Amino acid sequence: MRYVRASDCGARRQNVCDMRAKQILNKLAKMLIFVSLVCASLLMVNRGLLLDEQRQQEDHVVKELENIVENITWERRIDPALITQVKLYINVLNETEVTIYGQRNYKKRYLTIGIPSVSRGGKLYLYKTIQGILDCTSKNEQRNMTIFVFLADDKGDYNNKTLSEIQSRYTEEIQSGLLFVMTVPPRVYPDLSNLKQNFNDAPARVRWRSKQNIDFALMFHQAKDLSRYYIHIEDDVIVAEKFLPKIERFINAVDTNKTHWAVLRFSKLGFIGKLIKSRDLEKFAKFILTLYDEQPVDWLLDHFERSMAQPKPIYCAPSLFQHMGDVSSLGDKPKAVFRDKTFVQHDKPKKVKKANKNRSV
Ligand SMILES: *[C@@H]1O[C@H](CO)[C@@H](O)[C@H](O)[C@H]1NC(C)=O
Ligand SMILES: *[C@@H]1O[C@H](CO)[C@@H](O)[C@H](O)[C@H]1NC(C)=O
Ligand SMILES: *[C@@H]1O[C@H](CO)[C@@H](O)[C@H](O)[C@H]1NC(C)=O
Ligand SMILES: *[C@@H]1O[C@H](CO)[C@@H](O)[C@H](O)[C@H]1NC(C)=O
Ligand SMILES: *[C@@H]1O[C@H](CO)[C@@H](O)[C@H](O)[C@H]1NC(C)=O
To answer: Which ligand places an atom closest to the C-alpha of 315?
Structure first.
């Protein structure tokens, strides 16, 4: 609809102007499309080249490093401990040695629950632990988390057997990106015999805690991109009802408080229920690798917390994780395993309906 009626002449001039403007705009648009197409294809070619180049450069750097390390070893100019350290990094964090069973999604999830698993003298709680986590989370919540299992036994065929059992029990969970299982060959571990005996620990205990340090470092290194937060438990743990929203609420409360934190503790037990930001996982993995033969991993966690400028531990109460087993993976602990007295499994005590009396809850 037009409100102003122009004279014929004016209208014609207007038309000519319009046409010219349209032609120019058309040309401009075509040029723009052409230029952006050229730019896009250049960028894509460049990116491919860059990725290739980067990979080649990385391989090259590793080769150089190995050469230099060899030469320095030969010349004995540098503390051999440093060379041992570099070799440890290269060996343990060798990506090509790691096998992960699971479906990688591009979308980062909210929480990863890390579970290292080794054989415990024939007692196996791992499936109960995984099932407990699945039972305490809704389908919606499960899309927000991943369960990351590391089969880390170093003797016999525990890893192989457990892997095929998990694969048949949890096919769907593995395919949907909810469950990951990791294995590594024994050759990535350093020699764990003849380590120094700090704290008067017996050699078997020193070996056990040093291997545990390597295990955890491997997990942290591999889990760093899966989610926003990472929480570590063990393979014999009971979880509390609705633990996922409870964790989220606690993190939000601490953040709203503007409290600076590196580690949040959702259980009082050793390394169980300790949560850290995934972006700190790589740093933590290297921290542990540097000191793996010095201290147990839960002590290293305390040091890491303070090194990250968190003055004191932050606990969530009541705690959300509890031990179920009574067999330590070291196999020499007395029967009475530590329990977390602040643990509450259910929000309300469950009423057993009369009709269901003989069904186990
Ligand atoms: C290692 O030492 C050899 C023999 O001295 C030398 O030829 C080579 O360049 C050195 N390599 C590196 C990476 O320093
Ligand atoms: C990593 O592991 C692969 C497979 O065993 C091996 O071929 C490669 O040399 C290793 N890389 C380094 C840097 O040790
Ligand atoms: C476990 O499985 C791997 C790969 O299939 C195989 O190479 C290895 O020999 C198996 N180990 C045992 C102890 O069965
Ligand atoms: C799940 O993810 C959604 C969307 O990212 C988020 O808003 C929600 O708070 C998450 N819930 C939990 C329990 O992680
Ligand atoms: C928030 O800060 C207050 C006051 O310092 C403290 O009492 C409370 O426990 C804090 N809450 C959390 C979740 O950190």
So the answer is: 5
The letter for the amino acid at 361 is V
Tens digits of per-residue pLDDT, 27-48?
555 555 555 554 454 444 444 4
**Per-residue three-class SS string for 3-53:** CCCCCHHHHHHHHHHHHHHHHHHHHHHHHHHHHHHHHHHHHHHHHHHHHHH
Cα(116) to centroid(ligand 3), Å: 19
CA distance 238 to 129: 6
The reply to whether 127 and 212 lie within a common domain is: yes
Does any domain span residue 210? yes
Ligand 4 contact, 141 CB (< 6 A): yes
Q: Is 257 a pocket residue for ligand 5 (Cβ < 6 Å)? A: yes
**Number of domains composing the chain:** 2
Cα distance between residue 328 and residue 337, in whole Å: 8
- pLDDT of 183-218, one tens digit each? 999 999 998 888 888 787 888 888 899 999 999 999
Cβ 244 under 6 angstroms from ligand 4: yes
Q: Which atom of ligand 3 is nearest to the CA of 156?
A: 13
Residue to substitute in 60, 61, 67 for testing ligand 1 pocket (most ligand atoms within 8 angstroms of CB): 67
109: containing domain: 98-323
